[in-house]
Amino acid sequence: MLVTGAGGQLGHALLEAFPSARGLTRAEWDVTQPPPPGLAADLVLHTAAWTDVDGAEDDPQGAAAVNVGGVQHAASLGVPLVVWSTDYVFDGAKREPYVESDAASPLGAYGRTKLHGEAAAGETAWVVRSSWLFGPTSRNFVRTMLRLGAERDEVAVVDDQRGSPTYVGDIAEATEQILTLPYGVYHVAAAGDCTWAEFAEAIFDEAGLPTRVRRITTAEFGARAPRPAYSVLRSEKGAPELPHWRDGLRRCLDRLL
Ligand SMILES: NC(=O)c1ccc[n+]([C@@H]2O[C@H](COP(=O)([O-])OP(=O)(O)OC[C@H]3O[C@@H](n4cnc5c(N)ncnc54)[C@H](OP(=O)(O)O)[C@@H]3O)[C@@H](O)[C@H]2O)c1
Fold first, then answer.
1. Which of 2, 59, 145, 178 has a CA 20 to 30 Å removed from the CA of 121?
2. Residue 227 has what pLDDT?
């Protein structure tokens, strides 16, 4: 079993869940290039991705080289793949959970490249859409809030985007079950939902930090990339159900603090 993107947060979690898997960092295989000669596997867990949502607006071709070209190169190994995708393939106009049969309509370059990457995975692939990933390693919202919370009395956080923050350890644990399902697209995200501001309040609460959260709008925050206002994912196809996001948050903080 090969894990690409082994330096990322999901890559780390998968290598913990599958200790016999071989992890490849970007230095070992830049997935914008064909696989290194002689690389062989029975299964590829393909987590390598361009995940800088705002940066993808500035360099959509660079993002596509990783998120589409990288999937094509992983598929060229000719073995089954698990490819992770995102809630950002949806535009957020719906106000109840998105299921697998809902039409994708990405708002930004990142979501567009991930959607094209889904198509590039081929017929022998599980495409696992998840949302708002966090874990004890790499760059993510939980680690950013802990850093800001230690520096400031108050943090301004967006309160008009709603999703399901998902602990990478829970996705990694669910992967074995996903492999028992037919190939196809699955929604696998934590139970429950919240806004980024509610998530930040939970992080400070669970971490015992007195930091206040000032609720702001997406427009006030002013990020370069548009993001869906609502992107809760649920499965209509029997994908594994994950624990509640707050439960995942507690287990993540147990490791971080
Ligand atoms: N993060 C989220 O909130 C989120 C939400 C939904 C879905 N997803 C999807 O879940 C998957 C895993 O994301 P993650 O959160 O684990 O992201 P991550 O922590 O940013 O990890 C991605 C990894 O891919 C590597 N990478 C980037 N370009 C590469 C290249 N050209 N060749 C090889 N490796 C490359 C990165 O290396 P460097 O560290 O060197 O850049 C990084 O180690 C991705 O498919 C992502 O789109 C993420």
1. 59
2. 98
- Tell which one of 2, 15, 26, 232 to mutate to probe ligand 1, the residue whose CB is within 8 A of the most ligand atoms: 26
Question: Could you tell me which of 112, 19, 124 has the C-alpha nearest to residue 82?
Answer: 124
pLDDT on residue 111: 98
Which residues, 6+ apart, have CB-to-CB distance to 114 below 8 Å? 49, 67, 85, 86, 88, 89, 106
Q: Is the CB of 26 under 6 A from ligand 1?
A: yes
The answer to whether residues 207 and 149 touch, using CB atoms and an 8 Å cutoff, is: yes
pLDDT at 196: 98
196-207 vs 141-151: helix crossing angle, rounded to 10: 60
| 22-to-2, 13, 38, 66, 76 alpha-carbon distances in Å | 5, 13, 14, 20, 18
Instruction: Determine contact, residues 122/236, Cβ cutoff 8 Å.
Output: no
Among protein residues, the one whose CA lies closest to atom 33 of ligand 1 = 26
Q: How remote is the CA of residue 133 from the centroid of ligand 1, in Å?
A: 10
Low-confidence stretches of the chain (pLDDT < 50) are none
Q: Is 66 in the pocket of ligand 1 (CB under 6 A)?
A: yes
By the 8 A CB rule, do 134 and 165 touch? yes
Task: Evaluate: CB of 100 within 6 angstroms of ligand 1.
Answer: no
Q: What's the CA-to-centroid distance between 12 and ligand 1, angstroms?
A: 11
Q: What is the reported pLDDT for 245?
A: 98
